[in-house]
Every structure is written in C-alpha cells, then in structure tokens.
C-alpha cells in the first residue's frame, strides 16, 4: 500500500487550479521523477475538471487509483495511490485535508492561487503519516486487529479440530477398552463367583 500524491485544487468554471501538492516519487527512477510528478499533477487537474461539485469518485488507471473529492464550494482534493490502498482511508484523508485547508487558507485566494502563493504546509506530513493506513486511521487499525483476531480464531478452530480428532481416537479406544473390561469382568466373575460386585 502506497500513496504517491496528495493535491488540493480549486475547480474553476473551465479548469482546475492546483493550489498545493505533495508527492512521494521515491519508488520511481531518479530521472523519471520529474515526469511522473508532472503526470500526477496533470491527472489530478483532469479528474477534478471532469468531476461534478459535491462528488467523490475513484478512477482506476493501470495499477493506480485516483481518489477525488470535489466539495460544493469547488475546493477539491485528489489522492493518487496504488490499487491496494483502502478507498475509505483515502477519502477520510481528503475530507480532513480539505477541511483544514479551508480553515487556514482564505477563500478569496482559491481562484487565483498557485503552490508558491498559498501557505499551507501540512500536506507533506499527511502524505507521510498516511503511508501506513493502519497507523494513521483508527478505523483501519481496529479492522486490522479484528482481522488478526479472526486469524487467531481460525487457527484455534483448526487446533480444536485436531484436538477433536484426538479425542475421537481416545473415545474409540475407550470403547474398545470398555469391551475388554466387560470381557475381563465376565471372566473374573465366572472364576470368582464367590465375590459380589455392586
């Protein structure tokens, strides 16, 4: 699971304006990184331009997922991640970032803003923190713990079944023992007819 890009944009009438972005292109080759970053910016702008206000969507492109959230006030966010990254966590991150951004950056700066003119420094921190969704998102952490408990439960059931098979063997042995005991009892009774058994 990996996040590659986290962008905040403004959806103007005919275009999307990039306000701020953070990228993690460390998994790409050194000479590919600028091109990959430009492509992520282009993709983010294109997705925001083609999305309706008040919508959330996930767009799949090869092994990547682009999660977009366009608010009714035209403030938008895009997360580009691999296909394994949980969508719910991506949208939680977008909602959190956009709420925080709208409180820290004046609305009048959105239509004409650019990454150099907008002062908002939290994106790199969020991109780093949310690389591991289990640590960043409490719900994912609980889900991971539940999955782990389920695995333990399954292994306990399997060991219980193995134990059950051993118990069945003991039961069948005790049934055999019961037959031999009965035969021994009958033989002993015949030979020791003087003894009373209660």
Listing every helix as H and every strand as E from the N terminus to the C terminus, the arrangement reads EEHEEEHHHH
C-alpha Rg (nearest Å): 33 Å
How much is the average pLDDT? 77
Approximately how much helix is present in the residues?
Answer: 40-55%
Strands, total number: 5
Shape annotation = rod-shaped
Q: Report, as a whole number of angstroms, the end-to-end distance.
A: 72 Å
Structural class: alpha+beta
Biggest beta sheet summary: 5 strands, antiparallel
* DSSP summary: helix tally: 5
Q: Give the strand line-up of the largest sheet.
A: 2-1-5-4-3
Instruction: Identify low-pLDDT runs.
Output: none
Query: How much of the sequence is in beta strands?
Result: 15-25%
Fold and architecture overview:
By secondary structure, this protein is α+β, with helices and mostly antiparallel strands. It has helices at 33-49, 87-104, 122-129, 133-136, 138-191, and strands at 3-11, 16-23, 55-61, 64-70, 75-82. It has a 5-stranded antiparallel beta sheet with strand order 2-1-5-4-3, with helices on both faces. The chain is rod-shaped and about 115 Å long.
Quick recap of the structure?
Helix content is 51%, strand content 20%.
Secondary structure layout plus pairing:
Layout: E1 3-11, E2 16-23, H1 33-49, E3 55-61, E4 64-70, E5 75-82, H2 87-104, H3 122-129, H4 133-136, H5 138-191
Antiparallel strand pairs: 1-2, 1-5, 3-4, 4-5
């Amino acid at each position: 699971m990996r996040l590659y890009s986290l962008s905040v944009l403004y959806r103007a009438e005919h275009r999307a304006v990039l306000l701020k972005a953070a990228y993690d292109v460390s998994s790409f080759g050194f000479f590919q990184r600028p091109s990959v970053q430009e492509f992520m910016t282009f993709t983010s702008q294109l997705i925001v331009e083609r999305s309706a206000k008040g919508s959330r969507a996930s767009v799949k492109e090869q092994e990547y997922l682009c999660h977009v959230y366009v608010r009714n006030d035209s403030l938008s966010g895009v997360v580009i991640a691999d296909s394994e990254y949980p969508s719910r966590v991506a949208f939680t991150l977008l909602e959190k970032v956009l709420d925080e951004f709208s409180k820290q950056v004046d609305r009048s700066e959105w239509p004409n803003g650019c990454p150099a003119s907008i002062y908002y420094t939290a994106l790199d921190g969020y991109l780093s923190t949310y690389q591991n969704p289990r640590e960043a998102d409490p719900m994912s952490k609980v889900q991971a713990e539940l999955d782990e408990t389920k695995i333990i439960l399954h292994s306990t059931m399997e060991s219980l079944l193995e134990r059950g098979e051993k118990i069945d063997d003991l039961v069948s042995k005790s049934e055999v023992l019961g037959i031999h005991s009965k035969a021994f009892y009958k033989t002993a009774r015949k030979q020791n007819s003087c003894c009373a058994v209660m």
